[in-house]
Here is the input.
Amino acid sequence: VQLQASGGGLVQPGGSLRLSCVASGFTSRRSAIAWFRQAPGKEREGISCINRSDGQIQYADSVKGRFTISRDNAEQDSEETVYLQINNLKPEDTAVYYCATGWFGLDPFAMDYWGKGTQVTVSS
Here is the structure.
């Protein structure tokens, strides 16, 4: 399984970004795709997860209301694109954002495969 995250950049506070994660190489739909982020000096934090089989979604409490996860190609077994829309960006959202696949949930230790991250910097 391969994952590639993109869409990061430098954004002013209050701005928006849409991150994309292209995931391919699946052999079944029994998995989930999740977004994580890691700020300098901090642990990796689970943000949101979507279950590939039934579309169930979970958000971390810290991002509810500003972050929205969605997907394309949900009907395909072998690949899927998952998006993370981030609105009203704040400086504390600055981090490297990763997508990963594994068990449904926000535990990084439950993920089997990781993509390379994309940097999001929120600064005026």
